[in-house]
Amino acid sequence: MSNPLDPKAPAQPGIIGWIDYRLPIFGFMKGMGDYLTPKNLNYWWSFGSIAGICLMVQIITGIMLAMHYTPNINNAFQSVEHIMRDVNYGWLLRYTHAVGASMFFVTVYVHMFRAFYYGSYKSPREILWWLGVIIYLAMMAAGFMGYVLPWGQMSLWGATVITNFFDKIPLIGTAIGEWLRGGFAVENATLNRFYALHYLLPFVILGLVILHIWALHHHGSSNPTGVEVKTPKDVIPFHPYYTIKDVFGFGVFFIIFSVLIFFAPNYLGHPDNYIPANPMVTPAHIVPEWYFLPFYAILRSIPDAFLGVVAMFGAIVVLFFLPWLDTSKVRSSSYRPVFRFFFWVFVIDALFLGWLGAKPAEGWYVVAGRIATVYYFFHFLVLMPVIGKFETPKDRPKTIAEAYES
Amino acid sequence: MANNPTKIQSAAEEPADPSKRDFMVLASCGLGAVGAACVAWPLVDSMNPSADVLAQSSIEVDISSVQPGQQKKAMWRGKPIFIYRRTPEQIAEANKVNVGELRDPQTDIDRTKPGKEEWLVMVGVCTHLGCIPIAGEGEFGGWFCPCHGSQYDISGRIRKGPAPTNLLVPPYAFLNDKTIKIG
Questions:
Q1: What is the pTM of this model?
Q2: ipTM score here?
């Protein structure tokens, strides 16, 4: 009788086989390379692996920066200037990390809108989608806390505004706000804990990414037709086909990344953050980082402080319900003419909200912000369920291979 | 799900000349390796001493208050510097030693500046494992390291114990009678 626990005999001779018999790490890597992938993925599918590269860039540059940064309100600003002026290549590390945050968000936004367009969140990939939304929330927390660390004016007042969201919760809000800050205002205790969490969160994200990829590989990638894989002719192995395609994407990505680092490193930042934090003066015009602007616009468009915070968080919470709000049986918008039109209207609405978020809350901007906010929720809560019910989709190919050959 | 097959038919035909493909793979991987090294260097170099640390590389010390038989300590590159003003007897004792018998042979002249033999300037770090020796202790009237018992004479030369070499003399110069510049 054979031992049911006994692993298979070494597949390969030599040292690799010896290791693999004890720890099947090479077998695992080969399995990742052999992962069967729909053969019709377009470049929009490259943004997932680009996002993974972004996470690695942030973790590596972040660890190097942490070796020189001091999380204390008396030294934080100076330690950042020390990184910029004294540390060998410190300017490169910091600009890569700061621009890298923007590159990470823009990549993830493209990755999310790809999922919107191609219905990637639909059954059986709901948990895959949820993990993505949780990663996005963790990224927002990490991005926000990272922006606090240089302890400039935007750091302090951004932290003040964001932590005050929680003070708006009825009854217990003040206690929660003080607990989050570790004080009555954003002070040293806040900076110190934000640093601890800012170091922790990327590794939480890394764990979530592993779950995200695990869930992805369980049912396989979706594809532009939205038709599930049916025959061996529909798929190709990930390596070498998509490794090559993704590496090309990395090349384009790093060219754009480098242009920003070397020619416009502060383009996406705010000059006020080069003024040391001053708890007695708020900057005249305070805006969050660009990647929060649509949500900032939603926050400001609601006249009530607490309801504004609810709307802002609701704008993200609604994403969790996308698999059920989208009632259409057809996955890809390529075969949904009505929904496709409204998808692009939504893209414009989201960009418009982002543009409004950077404008002062006055005049016609306020009215426009309210209309755009209502439309944001209208898209998810009304348009998606209704269009799915009444739309007549176009004919879809029977298989991926059929679509590929036509 | 139908993606069970472990082997799939490759649509691509074998190339007529595989050496071209091999060349492309090698060239791409080589370029990638060069790129990775270029990225790695700034990361590694960021851990080297920064400009503000290197800027500490020279200090000026006022020695006007040091009396014969006294030691003054100064900080240079994060390490203590011993500035010891010796008495004529101590200088004579330092010169009496048979240099040939020393573990790290050096004359007292080698370890001082001409005409300024009364001043002994050394990095106050034991050459064994980096502790700071105590002045005026040990069998040789010089320095004694409390960590592992290395003993230095009044010229800072190793005489007994595990340390391999004499206490290091840093580069220094007398700017005038009252000031020395270390580094």
A1: 0.87
A2: 0.84
